[in-house]
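Work Package 3 (structural annotation) set out to generate three-dimensional models for the target panel prioritized at the project kickoff. During this period the team completed the workflow that converts sequence records into discrete structure tokens, so that structures can be stored uniformly alongside our sequence database. As a representative example, we reproduce one entry of 204 residues exactly as it appears in the project archive.
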Amino acid sequence: MDRRTLLFIVLSTLIFLIWAWMQRPTMTVPPPEGVGAEATQAPQEEPAPTEMGTEVSEAPTVTEEPSGLEEGVPAVSSPVAWAERVRRSKATTVRSPVYEIEVVHATASLRAWRLLQYPARRPNGQLSEEPADLIALYGPDYAGVRIDGRSLSWEPVGEVPQEVRLSEANPEATLQFRARDGDLEIIKTFRFHYSDAQAVRRGA
């Protein structure tokens, strides 16, 4: 092999290696999150400038509680606190030989419904001397009717006595209460009827 042939082979091999090195695939490593990109943040609202460098704070939202309950009872919204308010509020008691019902004026709801012919049962299963109370057993909605989560404030329609006794001479009684919410007026009516205790015992 002569010198020219050998030089041609060496140069051809060198050119091929250089060309192959230049054509090799390049791997691009992606940058980590947040690098090279500007983070977009929502513009923060700056407080309005005020005189003398003072800051203005928003007034707290005050939720109005329904009025009409006895004075001195704090305004509350929890069920337990509402129950306490109702127990201390003015009510009308309707009595008959069979039942005794207490109607609260401020909430137009019942806080007691005692069945005088049926004794209450204690937690240990024994019968007590107290009459069974349906309200204590099933639990009332002490806040009364609500609109959009707000309890209404009720007032009696006309004169409502503190006590009503039903008898054969006075077999029926009606109590009415009114509440307003803007232009809306709601009337709630309770009707009570006389029942004979002996008929109840006979199952009539």
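The CA atoms of residues 156 and 191 lie 14 Å apart.
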